[in-house]
TrEMBL record:
This is F-box domain-containing protein. Coiled coil: none annotated. Residues 30-70 form the F-box domain. It comes from Helianthus annuus. It comes from the Eukaryota. SUPFAM superfamilies: F-box domain. InterPro entries: F-box-assoc_dom_typ3 (IPR013187), F-box-assoc_interact_dom (IPR017451), F-box-like_dom_sf (IPR036047), F-box_dom (IPR001810), SCF_F-box_component (IPR050796).
Length: 378
């Protein structure tokens, strides 16, 4: 009798264990459209930094169908602050929608780069100091000191950027600096930043192409969290870096005999591609897109007429409004008006309309753009 009871109990426990293993995923039976309707009720920052990484399906839906038309900016004072503003810009059928919130960062410094959930911050007063901050876990760590011949990351002798290598699942801090020729070093770390201060910098070959910026350097424009591009004030090429291959190269600029490339151009990331806005005349700007990085293949996306009243109202003489970012739909470009009466404007490439965005920005504030294509961890 006891033997039978024990056997029955073991079978019952085995059945319960089997049921636990076979837990029903209620979301798995939902159609994509229904699941998207549910997920869209969550705040954008929760979707971007937490919910998206639940599983492959959620990552794909949130990235490609919910956050596809989103862009994010951090606005901070030029001298750095613990409190910064996060501006989320999304596209809907009526235009652009803005959401603004304050972020508290437990470190006073200037944000230099933003890749996925990590911020790379430099200290204005402690020479050569870099701080990495995880926006999801709200944790940070100092990085080991790098070469200080650049002058401390706040002058014009170096450029730093944060990238992600999805093939190895690691982040890379790139530091390009003068010493006296252009040099470069890398710091590689995984998602866990607790042991970052014990890592060591690795020297790599710096770029041979320096254009007219041979005596100073700058922070790069980041594309896809992988490719870095530096405007070196040259009419023929950019200096680019594939941070996965850890290799610099010369990227030829577009242009023609009719509209030769001059130094009146600006770079901006647009929908996962590098874009270039070239002022070819007093009333015309050509928008180019680097469609093939390996072959330096550019395609002209559109020509913008700048003689309209709306555009000219933010066009101070010959100074081109600075492109800041673009929503992934590649329809709206966000510009910043230079000068004392600064402001953010959106240009609709489809309807050719320029509008001022309803957000206050001071002349001393900086815009830090999040790289648009987040890395996949699956």
């Amino acid at each position: 009798m006891k033997t039978g009871t024990k056997r029955s109990r073991k079978e019952s426990e085995a059945e319960q264990a089997s049921r636990k293993k076979k837990k029903v995923d209620c979301f798995a039976s939902l159609h994509d459209d229904l699941l998207i309707d549910i997920l869209q009720k969550l705040p954008a920052d929760i979707l971007r930094y937490k919910t998206r990484f639940v599983c492959k399906r959620w990552f794909s839906l949130i990235t490609n169908r919910i956050l596809f038309d989103h862009a994010s900016l951090i606005l901070e004072t030029s001298y750095g602050s613990r409190t910064v503003r996060l501006l989320d810009i999304s596209e809907d059928k009526h235009g652009l929608t803005l959401k603004e919130q304050n972020l508290e960062i437990p470190y006073t410094g200037r944000i230099k780069s933003w890749c996925n959930e990590f911020l790379l911050i430099t200290d204005l007063y402690k020479e050569g100091s870099l701080f990495i901050y995880d926006m999801i876990r709200k944790q940070g760590s100092f990085l080991p000191p790098c070469s200080t011949s650049c002058g401390g990351h706040y002058g014009c002798k170096c450029g730093v950027g944060l990238s992600y290598d999805k093939f190895k699942g690691v982040y890379k801090v790139v530091h390009a600096f003068l010493g006296p020729q252009i040099q470069c070093e890398l710091l590689i770390f995984k998602g866990d930043i607790a042991s970052c201060n014990s890592l060591k910098w690795k020297k790599i070959s710096g770029p041979y192409y320096t254009g007219q910026r041979r005596y100073y350097w700058d922070d790069p424009v980041s594309v896809q969290g992988r490719y870095f591009h530096w405007d070196v004030h040259c009419s023929k090429y950019l200096v680019s870096m594939d941070t996965v291959k850890e290799r610099f190269r010369q990227t030829c600029l577009p242009g023609s005999d009719v509209f030769p490339m001059n130094k009146r151009y600006s770079l901006v990331e647009m929908g996962g591609f590098l874009s270039l806005l070239h002022k070819v005349s007093e009333d015309k700007i050509n928008v180019w897109m680097l469609k093939d990085y390996q072959r330096s293949k550019w395609e002209i996306l559109q020509s913008i007429n700048v003689s309209s009243h709306v555009w000219s109202s933010i066009y101070p003489g010959r100074v081109l409004p600075l492109p800041v970012t673009c929503v992934k739909g590649k329809r709206y470009i966000v510009f910043r008006k230079p000068g004392s009466e600064t402001g953010l404007y959106s240009y609709d490439l489809e309807n050719k309309i320029m509008r001022r965005l309803d957000v206050n920005i001071a002349p001393a504030e900086r815009c830090v753009v999040r790289t648009t294509e987040a890395a996949s961890f699956f």
